Amino acid sequence: MAQLTRRTTDLLKPFSAALSSTRLLTTTSTTPITVETSLPFTGHKIDPPSRSVETTPQELMNFFRDMALMRRMEIAADSLYKAKLIRGFCHLYDGQEAVSVGMEAAITKKDCIITAYRDHCIFLGRGGTLLECFAELMGRKDGCSKGKGGSMHFYKKDSGFYGGHGIVGAQIPLGCGLAFAQKYSKDENVTFAMYGDGAANQGQLFEALNMAALWDLPAILVCENNHYGMGTAEWRAAKSPAYYKRGDYVPGLKANGMDAFAVKQACKFAKEHALKNGPIILEMDTYRYHGHSMSDPGSTYRTRDEISGVRQERDPIERIRKLVLSHDLATEKELKDIEKEVRKEVDEAIAQAKESPMPDPSELFTNVHVKGFGVEAFGADRKELRAVLP
Amino acid sequence: MLGIIRQRVASCKGFPALTLEQGIRVVASQAYSSNSKQMTVRDALNSAIDEEMSADPKVFLMGEEVGEYQGAYKITKGLLDKYGPERVYDTPITEAGFAGIGVGAAYYGLKPVIEFMTINFSLQAIDHIINSAAKSNYMSSGQISVPIVFRGPNGAAAGVGAQHSHCYAAWYASCPGLKVLAPYSSEDARGLLKAAIRDPDPVIFLENELLYGESFPVSAEVLDSSFCVPIGKAKIEREGKDATITAFSKMVGYALQAAEILAKDGISAEVINLRSIRPLDRATIYDSVKKTSRLVTVEEGFAQHGIGAEICASVVEECFDHLDAPIERIAGTDVPMPYAANLERMALPQVEDIVRAAKRACYRSN
């Protein structure tokens, strides 16, 4: 299954170790289970899909582990930032993991994803490694962008992840362009262009959506509505915060973004729609525990009660934990063991990333162009530092 | 590319002392003046796009009126009929949207040619040009390349007023990651546009509306479908020994006219057609200034932080000992473009301005 194959074999070892005791024989790990989404879907100019979602024990366990990994990674990034090993901007995704994990369960690596700057977990979901994440965050050469991008510029083109963009809203026309190219190339795949409730008011979204609709592009616009655009609550920024309806003539679907199965169902539904009928908007009702970035405490425009309330009532990992336990797929201890392993995996990746050197000074001048024609480029003191662009 | 011209140089009699590069330029300018056929810049651009679309199915066109209207300035005439609506896309009037869509398509591996009806409108899309296109290859450490061309008429037309007459060469040319080209003749238009479309990096291709209808001689080499002009190499349009004049786009024509007038007054001016604003062919400029010791830079755009300013700084850094006079800059007047014909004329460089500046550089008062 897709989720398993993209990890190292380490994933399989602890999993089978956890299962060595009693339940969940491997012969039943692909037995279909039906799960009901926590809430119904709401449709705009479209009939919503059913709340019943097909899954398997394998997938449930994968959801748990993958989200636990993402959660752990983001918490660790918080510490690294406070230790000043990560510099500049750092936008954390903890709370929103279900959107990435649910989406990946519905699609393939030939489908494309593009997002804004809250991209660490999306990158991981697309098959990126922890080492590539942490090394990039710390500006080391083993980072996914060899240390030259930073937190907001993770890419993994070979599995359809096109970044990682710092300018709010820009990724939406870019995503529609990816969908354009997929249609042009007759690829039968779709693009998920992700954006937040803040970006949902950008003019270029409507420009791109208009063209996507005119040309029937297989573009799925996914609004991760965490209810705050930086420090501004949605009701202060949007006259109409029903983002799934904002496409007007483009159908929309709203799903509970804290429920990985709702996300999976919505994305599956959207992919089928987009391939036949052109663009559709998905609104994922989600929440971020951290502030907008590490420079924002996140508590000046939200109450601590609200944040802890969401954590208690709607946490995506807790939802899966309850499902796993209620379906008897693992014990509480086994799940805690998985979380311990995940923590260990993250710690090891951080240790390895810390060993990775900073990029060689010669890398300052590489990749400016694909084809540089041997042109000269200059440093701050042009008499002192110059290079030839290959 | 220059293969055919190199062969001609090798067998070319009478220029044994020249270096290969100089020889190529001489032969090219000979070919230029040998009058095989005349072609308008418009037809040159159209044929270049046509040939590149024919050669590579990944090349597609996008822009306002490029299809059914046959192009606002008829540059894309006939291409919708020939290639169909799956290769030629008429867009709504939404530059930010379609520039972004073009860049996204380039990320995926297609080769978009995006037309801005004038480069003035590219400002609506400038975030995509700079932040989504120019910087992506660098930020991704080579994973995401952007083989896109943004093209359109740049600078002043005739009487179109302040918002439609601005030259943006300096704006784009300051940005690492972009290539900025500015053709003058039909040969430039064909060769540079073909090179731009084939180039794997984002290219800003600055045309000029008033040049579209001008005819230039084109040789058989230029008409060949493999013809390309190298990016990053300037062309010596006219050899001279007393003063160097650099120019690009329409100003090349003005510089050549100025050189004619100067010749009658005993000043032999060397006219350099920059062709490539970024990368700038500094070597050609330095060689010329080392020969003439005097420099006049000419551009339509504003002087402050302009192309001439960059050339001046560069030449002072590298050729200081060779200069016999301060460098002269001829540029657009420091005002938004006025509409009235007399004021518009005063707002743009004229041939007499270039002549006067060259004479000043030669310490001639008349």
UniProtKB/TrEMBL annotation, chain A:
One of the Pfam families matching this protein, by short name: E1_dh
Coiled-coil intervals, chain numbering: none
InterPro entries: DH_E1, PDH_E1_Alpha_Subunit, Pyrv_DH_E1_asu_subgrp-y, THDP-binding
Cofactor (UniProt): thiamine diphosphate
Gene Ontology MF term list: pyruvate dehydrogenase (acetyl-transferring) activity
Catalytic activity, EC: 1.2.4.1
Assembly mode: Tetramer of 2 alpha and 2 beta subunits.
Protein name, as recorded: Pyruvate dehydrogenase E1 component subunit alpha
Species: Fraxinus pennsylvanica
Automatic annotation (TrEMBL), chain B:
Domain Transketolase-like pyrimidine-binding: from-to ranges: 39-214
Domain of life: Eukaryota
Listed GO biological process terms: pyruvate decarboxylation to acetyl-CoA
Keyword Transcription: no
EC number: 1.2.4.1
Subcellular location: Mitochondrion matrix
Main localisation: mitochondrion
InterPro entries in the record: PDHB_mito-type (IPR027110), THDP-binding (IPR029061), Transketo_C/PFOR_II (IPR009014), Transketolase-like_Pyr-bd (IPR005475), Transketolase_C (IPR033248)
GO cellular component: mitochondrial matrix
Subunit structure: Tetramer of 2 alpha and 2 beta subunits.
Family annotation (PANTHER family): DEHYDROGENASE RELATED, PYRUVATE DEHYDROGENASE E1 COMPONENT SUBUNIT BETA-1, MITOCHONDRIAL
Protein known as: Pyruvate dehydrogenase E1 component subunit beta
Taxon lineage: Eukaryota, Viridiplantae, Streptophyta, Embryophyta, Tracheophyta
